């Protein structure tokens, strides 16, 4: 009894589960039916409808055509060869650039090696100069031994000893020395002031004598006014020179007087003073040479390190002959590679011409194929014959669209468009429903292939979408236009395409009086112009 009650309690639970599953299944089927009838068309379903319809009209499910697009295979082969040539050219260029970089490195290494040799020679000469300087013993100082004059420490010691004798006499004369220096500076200053005045006077005198002067690169004849101005300037210069000479003469006399006084006071230590000054000059000269030698040694060491670094990158020894041989070898390789490169460029140009010729033939053949189908449709006597021809055309379309080559796929897309046009042509097939299905099955899914550069209408993605919209209108299926335009907006590649898709969708909403949705699309345009602004205002007025 208890078991029966348990079973009775479980039965309603199972029933609800089954009911829920059936409800979900029914909802899914209803959604699928609604999606098929009112949503974005599915290519596979459109192809199924086309095949079923053609089978009903012709009694056959397969359509054979003897027309083969063999040229498309030739085009594919030529394009493969062209891609291989492009790769070879890229490899040639990469290798040539590598060799050119090595040539530059070798040239820099040779230049660095030459610089090392140059600096080595300079250093050798400076060392020789130092040795000669240390060995030179003037006749006036023969009282100093050579050992002193060739040893810096000995010279500094001798200089100190001489200073001990000279300084007691020299230091009290420091005010006199300062006066002599001041007078000498004044004399030098006035002497320097005379020089430019004398040059200017000489130039003016020559111009007056010649009656002309150089103005830039041209000779200009002096006018009477110019001669007068030059004479006045000479007189002014002469006055300035007389003034300077009037100041210079007493200064020179004072300088001579003070110098004589200084020499008289220094007479007891004159020889020691002269020797001390010469030693100081000699010490300074040797010190300068030693500093230059240290700098040259540092520069030489830096140059050698630079050379070692360059040679290490080249994996070559520091030998001029080896470097030159390596340079010649690489230059020869680059020349050979450049010749091969030019040959490949010539071959590529010829191949491109051949490829374009084959493409032209392929396009002509495709045109002939379409013309043949149109001619057969014109003479078809029954609907069955007509739909057999349509089936053959779509067989070629499916074959081309299934191939890997992009050019063949584009030809298939073009043939699909032309088949749809033939199906919607009055007094020919005139089957608008079939034209709409062809657009769903073959044109819309492949419209992205119409974005080839330099393509013009009617073979552009936007033009193909518009042709499918026209097919829906002809087939009295306006409910499919909005889903198509929504999908077109989703697949926009950039803002420009998205704005164009929004405008087209807004116009469609406006045409069917769905003004709120049209307003939303116009407002979503990111790059608004006056026309868009006017449309937004118009939609807002309609909604109110």
Plain-language structure description:
This protein has helices spanning 2-38, 43-58, 70-135, 146-149, 152-170, 174-210, 224-266, 270-314, 320-379, 383-401, 406-423, 432-443, 461-474, 481-490, 495-511, 515-524, 530-543; strands at residues 212-215, 218-221. The chain is mostly helical. The chain has three domains: 37-80 and 348-543, no CATH class; 81-169 and 270-347; 172-267, Helix Hairpins (Orthogonal Bundle). It has a two-stranded antiparallel ribbon. A hairpin with a 2-residue loop joins β1 (212-215) and β2. α3 runs antiparallel to α9, α9 (320-379) packs parallel to α11 (406-423) and α13 (461-474) packs antiparallel against α14. The two termini are 71 Å apart. Residues 1-11 have low confidence and may be disordered.
Summarize the structure.
The protein has 544 residues and is mostly helical. It contains 17 helices and two strands.
